[in-house]
Amino acid sequence: MNVLVLGGYGLIGDAVVGRLLRDGHHVCGLGRDVGDAQRRRPAVCWIAADMSLLLAAEDWLPVVAGMDAVVNAAGALQDGPRDRLDAVHWRSVLALVAACEQAGIRRFVQISAVGADPSSKNPFFSTKAEGDRAVASSSLEWTILRPGLVIAPAAYGGTALLRALAAFPGFVPAVMSRQPIQTVSVVDVTEAVSRAVAGSLPPRLVVDLVEANARPLADVLSAFRAWLGLSPAKVVPMPTILGRLAGAVADGLGMLGWRSPLRSAALAALGRGVTGNAAPWNEISGHPLQPLEATLADTPAHVQERWFARLWLLKPVILACLSMFWLVSGIIGLIRQEEAADILVSHGVPGNFADMSVLAGSAADILVGAAAVVRPFARRALQAMIAITLFYLAAATLLVPELWLAPLGPLVKTIPTLCLVLVALAVLDER
């Protein structure tokens, strides 16, 4: 079959694409930024498109032409500069369903979420439910799958946060540590999608995909810590106010393009618990979905997982430190412009040129420091930090080489900073 997978390079979408390829299907994947996906999965036909802009059936007809089935694995956590929940979860799905009906597509698989409810005050769950309603109201052979907390070999978003918290040194911090969680292996999710695409599930099915028993978030974190091979540590409940503060900060970072799993929508979802009804799927399949222990045992952790878990929480710290270092450096240069210019003048640089150089250098420092915390500009800002640092080192070596031997080591200390920029570049990718 020819199958279109929306969100085909996401946590669930990528696993679905891999499973459908192994099943022998011809797969097309759709997403906003497909460059990396094209390199990783060249066997897939990739379509670069923003679902939030495809709001009429006519917009979708060229995309779904020739397809036999559609799997919607796309989604967003919270409204932001790049994400509009109403458009992605509902309005675009409504248009897509209409296009599928017009194009004669047989099957539609909607990957939703446990807790999807049109009356929910959380826009994530309410818009997901509206999308589910659009699918369920269609004439297609549809299946709506609602997974719990999906555990996969890949990790970003909430699953990356779990790993990072589990690897916290000394203890494991957790907000709402007693909230119930039901997980599901991404392998089990892809099995359900495979069966739905093949038509081997009951028609017009809405079903939760969760392990049989719920467990507290604290137990999930402890299981992840053991999986990482780290020594046991106590899970320490954090005050709810601390979680709300972190959510407010993450919401602000979301406006700068960072997609933190700590945003207020995620905390609200955790507040209600991540639970569903395992019984319907167990009856259909004849066996329960595997529990968290079996999911983790199927993908044993190695040193790369420990590196990732430990670096994940350090990433924002690194970026914040670099941003502050460059901002403060630039501001000090402006405040003490005359002193900085005098140093250049004392080494034969003309006065006007020295003043202009100090102003230009301070402005450049402030610019890259501010740009480093804006996600679309972060990579170029970090690269600019490297270029500026190397220029400073070269200029200082030519004009004031004795600074290399100065007691406080002003030039020597730039080398570790340069290395920190390289680390920031190495961990900048989010998925």
UniProtKB/TrEMBL annotation:
Residues 7-153 form the NAD(P)-binding domain. InterPro entries: ComplexI_NDUFA9_subunit, DoxX-like, NAD(P)-bd_dom, NAD(P)-bd_dom_sf. Keywords: Membrane, Transmembrane, Transmembrane helix. Gene3D superfamilies: NAD(P)-binding Rossmann-like Domain (3.40.50.720). The chain crosses the membrane at residues 312-336, 386-405, 411-428. The keyword Transmembrane helix applies. This is SDR family oxidoreductase. It comes from Mesorhizobium shangrilense.
